[in-house]
Amino acid sequence: MDKVVASAALAVADVPDGASVAVGGFGLSGVPNVLIDALHASGVSGLDVVSNNCGAMDTGLAVLLSAGRIRRVTGSYIGGNKEFARQYLGGELELELIPQGTLAERLRAGGAGIPAFYTPAGVGTQVAEGGLPWRYDGEGGVAVASPAKEVRDFDGTAYVLEHSIRTDFALVRAAKGDRHGNLVFNKSARNFNPLAAMAGRVTVAEVEELVEPGEIDPDHVHLPGIFVQRVVALTAAQAVDKKVEKRTVTEREARV
């Protein structure tokens, strides 16, 4: 039952080229940076990544993206990542862009064993009707477009069929975890980390604080250890190394 692995490098050593990987995080909150850096150091490439966003500045998934290690992204937010936009518009990167709530439910459904579900999000748009550019040809044309999805009427309301997501691996970050893999997340880090962990067939969690089994009140567990296969305990320096995407400082009035 002890799922603790000695290092991040060992925890991701068996991730092969071309693997699909769900990655937790919301903006810069709860991003498994240590595991991502270890994946980068391993040299793995051709990754199919599922994540809300694909990193920012020089942190998170931006490390793998800038190195050309990502082949495809399924996500809901590009943000101000100029390198992401360059690769996508240049035909170097495939992107399936979907509504944020739909992404969350596709991950959760995958972990819950639900193959597909209906949702009203995206009905009447290219999300349902198809034609969204997944990959450009590098010359302004669309090389691969999204297919049309099934739409059904339930009690007078149209719903589109969305398939669940399962990935080979998942990388997540938790504020606290025990040796059995039970995890606790902090605030907005809880938005996508539990869902990404559920979707992965092999889930690796980096934890800021490692505790012994029984130290976490069962009522406080956000994700039970059944969904986690490996745990990596962060050092004190790694645990506090958190980036700020956009720093806003209020100017003080000059004192006379």
Q: How would you describe what is shown here?
A:
The chain is of the alpha/beta class and about 260 residues long. It is built from 8 helices and 13 strands. The protein has helices spanning about 10, 35-40, 60-65, 80-90, 100-110, 125-130, 195-200, 235-240, and strands spanning about 20-25, 45-50, 70-75, 95, 115-120, 135, 140-145, 150-155, 155-165, 165-180, 185, 200-210, 230-235. Strands 1, 2, 3, 4, 10, 11, 12 and 13 form an 8-stranded mixed β-sheet that branches. A 3-stranded antiparallel β-sheet has the order 5-9-8. The N and C termini lie far apart (about 65 Å). The mean pLDDT is about 95. This is CoA transferase subunit A. One of its GO terms (molecular function) is transferase activity. Belongs to the 3-oxoacid CoA-transferase subunit A family.
Break the fold down into its secondary structure elements and pairings.
Blueprint lengths: L7 H4 L8 E4 L9 H10 L4 E4 L11 H5 L3 E6 L6 H8 L4 E4 L2 H13 L3 E4 L6 H4 L3 E4 L5 E4 L5 E4 L2 E7 L3 E12 L4 E2 L8 H7 E12 L18 E4 L2 H5 L16
Parallel strand pairs: 1-2, 1-10, 2-3, 3-4, 10-12, 12-13
Antiparallel strand pairs: 5-9, 6-7, 8-9, 10-11
Helix pairs in contact: 5-7
Beta-strand portion reads 25-35%
Percent of residues in helices comes to 10-25%
Order of helices and strands: HEHEHEHEHEHEEEEEEHEEH
Give the integer mean of the pLDDT values.
95
**Alpha-beta classification:** alpha/beta
Note poorly predicted spans: none
Q: End-to-end distance, in Å?
A: 65 Å
Report the sheet with the most strands, covering strand number, pairing sense and barrel closure. Answer: 8 strands, mixed
InterPro entries: 3-oxoacid_CoA-transf_A, CoA_trans_fam_I, CoA_transf_BS, NagB/RpiA_transferase-like
GO molecular function, one term: transferase activity
Keywords: Transferase
Pfam family, one: CoA_trans
